[in-house]
Design brief:
Order of helices and strands: EHHEHHHEEEHEH
Number of helices: 7
Distance between the termini: 20 Å
Helix content: 40-55%
Structural class: alpha/beta
Length: 159
């Protein structure tokens, strides 16, 4: 399950249905997803955003024993044999001199972030590369392909 939306993107979805974008609201939304009954029969892995990987299950005292009050989402899901992963890129940035093409950034400090996420219980990582494909614009350009391939290779080596 991809639940690795940034705080801004998740907030836009919440605000579209009248819910204020706050850490508490994002936590409650993701908890609703993760505590779905029989979730472990439907999936074996969840991709998280940094904020989410640091959050815990919060429950009313009456159901505390069912959901494990204070247990991190990562540990809660691990108890259900669901692996947690983490989105490690920091977003798309324009490649100068191209026709609105982008490269994915976030390699600086990635080795340390991966070690921390592994200690937290994450067992895989996600990195994306987005290519603009347009015959009219002649994209993807060789520069975009090379830059993204280089970044993907470095990501793979670090992870």
């Amino acid at each position: 399950m991809a639940s690795d939306e940034s705080n801004n993107t998740c907030g836009q979805r919440l605000e579209a249905v009248g819910v204020k974008n706050s850490e508490e609201a994002r936590q409650m939304w993701r908890q609703l997803l993760y505590t779905t009954p029989l979730i472990n029969t439907l999936m074996s892995g969840v991709i998280m955003y940094d904020e989410t990987a640091r959050q815990s299950v919060k429950t009313p005292p009456i159901v505390e024993k069912i959901y494990g009050e204070g247990k991190t989402f990562i540990n809660y899901l691990a108890d259900k044999d669901i692996l947690s992963g983490i989105k490690v890129d920091i977003g798309l940035f324009p490649i100068e001199g191209t026709k609105d093409e982008t490269s994915t950034e976030g390699l600086d400090g990635l080795d340390q972030r991966c070690k921390e996420y592994y200690q937290m219980g994450c067992r895989f990582a996600k990195w994306r590369a987005v290519f603009k494909i347009s015959e009219k614009d002649g994209t993807p350009s060789e520069e975009a392909i090379k830059k993204n391939a280089y970044n993907l290779a470095r990501y793979g080596r670090i992870c």
